[in-house]
Amino acid sequence: MGIPEASSKTGFDWGASLGFDYITSAKCSLLSTAVSCSSTGSSAFSISPAVMAQFDRLRVEVTVPIVDIEGPGTLTGALGPRTIVGESAGPTNRRSGLGDISVGAAVIILREGRILPRLELAGVVKVPTAANGLGTGQTDYGAQVTFYRPLLTGIKTFGSLGYQRIGDPNTLRLHDGERATLGLDINYSNWGGGALLDYEKSLFPGVPNSFTVDPYVTLPFMFGTGLQVYTTIALTRLSPNHEVGVRLVL
Fold it and tell me: Do 106 and 124 form a contact (C-beta atoms < 8 A)?
């Protein structure tokens, strides 16, 4: 579950989004002492409706994904986009159904001032609700600190530093680890865009960490909604190969 920016309004606020995400991953083989990754092995498509409610400084959010996976992989991860993990010898049939539900909360610990940025402290829990081999069957946890700082009118920078605890499935031992982001967001009228530099510690022992750039554009849609389109560009060979998504935001 990505943890989005809280509303700057005081009092009560709410929001919702509907995401369509597609991702492919490197194919990984479990060896006696390490994991060897080569070509693309699995792909996943998810439809992820989410609802958010904010009470002054506190925001809570629930995401209930419907997932379709083809290849020997399952989805895991707490912070940021989900990651496909699994052995190359696993089941390659196509499975679909309810994915792992995520429940997150964030609190604004410092509102932005003339010099200081706005700071949020957030946490998220991924609950093992997935069936049919769509998830690892384990609970994942994540926590992060996020900052937002306006630079000019319609331009702001943002970033985060977090840590996630990943539950090990029966066949793999995964690493916990840190995740960090740094981005720039530009808005003009109802149009927008930006890019996010994303670092994530590898879940697999012996596999390099992931570095990606995630550019996106936000377009005005009907009835006051926004349509956000993004993609992922891998900066290392073993980062996610392809990832594209469309998100409808209320």
Answer: no
Cβ neighbours, 10 Å, residue 11: 8
DSSP string for residues in 79-130: SSS-EEE--TTS--SEEEEE--EEEEEEEEEE---SSSPEEEEEEEEEE---
10 Å CB burial of residue 33 (0-12, 13-18, 19+) is: exposed
CA distance linking residue 47 with residue 109, whole number of Å: 32
- pLDDT 10s digits, 163-179: 988 777 766 666 678 88
